[in-house]
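Sample entry as discussed:
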Amino acid sequence: MNDGAVRVVVPQHVAAAAALGLAASLVVRCTWPALAVGAALAAAGSAFVRPERAAFLVVVAAALGALWWGSTRAADLDRSVLLARVGWSETTAVTVTGPPRRGRFELRLPARVARFGRLAVDEPVLLELPLGRAPPQGARLEVLGELVRPRGPSNGFDEAAWLRRQGVHVVLRGDRWRTVGRRGGLPGLADRLRGWLGRSAARGLAGERRGIVEGVVLGDDAGLSDGLRRDFRASGLYHLLAVSGQNVALVAGSALFVAWLVGLPRLVGELGALAAIGAYVLAVGAQPSVVRAAVAGALGSLAWLTARQKDRWHFLLLGAIVLLAWNPYTLLDPGFELSFAAVLSIFTIAPRIRRALEGYPVPGKLADVVAVSTACGLATAPVSWFQFHAIPLLTVPANALAAPAVVPLLGLGLAAAVVAPLSGGAAATLAGLNGWCAAYLAGCARLVGGLPFAQIRSGRTAAALAGGLLLGAAYAWRRWRPT
C-alpha cells in the first residue's frame, strides 16, 4: 500500500475503530488509565514505523482510546448520589432541561438537581409535577418533593432501564413548586432559541395543526393527541415528527441562498451555514438524527472551506462518534438505531431500488420517494419490531402520499420563524398556509394508519414477513446480479 492509499483509507478506518470502541464499552467496561496510556503510545509509535504499520497502530490507538473513554463516560452515567436517598422528602432546587410531557395524572419533565435539602448535587432526574400549568424549559424551580424509584417493566416498556441510559436514576415527585429564575449561558440561549422558533413557526395556529408544525420543525410531538400519534406510528410517518437531515439541509441551504441573494461571497455563506446549523441544533436539542445530520452538514461546509474531499461514510461515522462519546448508551436508543439504519439504507439499498425502477412508467420524483421509503422501511423494520413490537406495512404508499406536503411544511415553518421579528402579520400568514400542510399530513396519517392491516403486531406474522422478504431478496439477487 502506498502513502497516498494510506492517507485515503486511514480516516475511515480510524473513525470506524473509534465508533466500535465506544460501542464495545457497553460490553467490556474498562476504565484502567493504562488503557489510555497504551492508546497514546500506539498513536505516538505510528510516527516511527512504515506507513502500513502506522495505519494499523493508529487504528488500534483509536479503538483503545475510545474503549477507555466510553467506559469512563458510562461509569459516570451509572453513578448516582440521589439514589441512596430514595424515600427522602426535601425542598429541592432544580432546572427544567426539556419540554414537558403531559400524562393522565401528572406532568413529567427532564430536569437537573442543583440542591437536595442541604446537599449540593449536580444530577439529572425525571421531575413529576401535578397537572396544571407547566414550567417552561430553562426555568429554575424550588420544589417540595420526594425521591422515588422509576417504574419497572410494564406493557413491554422498562422505564427504569430507559432512564438509566440517560444517567437518570431517580424520579422527583413534587407536591408544590415555584419558579425562582431562569438558567443562563449557552443553555439559556438554547432555551430562548427554542421558544422563539416554536412561537414563530406556528404563530396563530392551535390544536393538532400547531402540534404537527412543532413536531416537524422542533421534533416535539407533545402537542399531538395519543390517537394521532398512534396513527403516525402505524402509517410509517412518525419519522416526520423527528428532526432529520432534511431539516438541517434546509437550514444550511437557506443560509447559502440568502448569502447568494444579497451577493455575499461563498466563504461568508458557508460560515453562515455553520452558524445556522449550530443555532438550529441548540434550539431543537441533541437528538440523534439532528446531531448526525449537523455533524455531516458542518463537516461538509468545512470540507469546502478547506478544499478537502467529502466522504459521506466518514461523516456518518463521525456523527456516531460524537453521540456515543457523549453517551455510549445512545447506541441502545431507538432514535439512534432508526436514524442510522435509515441513512445506511439510503447509501446502500435505495440506489439499487432506484435503478430497478428505471424503465417503468414512474415519474422521477415518485421513483425517488419509493426507493428511499422502501429502503428505509426494510432497514428500520427489525429496529421497529425489537423496540416497539410493531412494523408498519404501508410505509411506501404513506410516504408517497405525504411527500408533497413535507418540504413545504418545513420550509414555511422556518420561513415564518425568520420573518417573525420583521413582520408578525407575514409570519402569521405563512403559518396559516402551513396549517393546511399540517392538516393534509394529519389526514395522510389517519387514512393510512387507520387501516386494519397498516402494521404488524403478531410475532408469527412478522416471522412470515421476514421469511418472504428473504426469499424475495434471494430471488432478486439471482435475477439482477451482475454477470
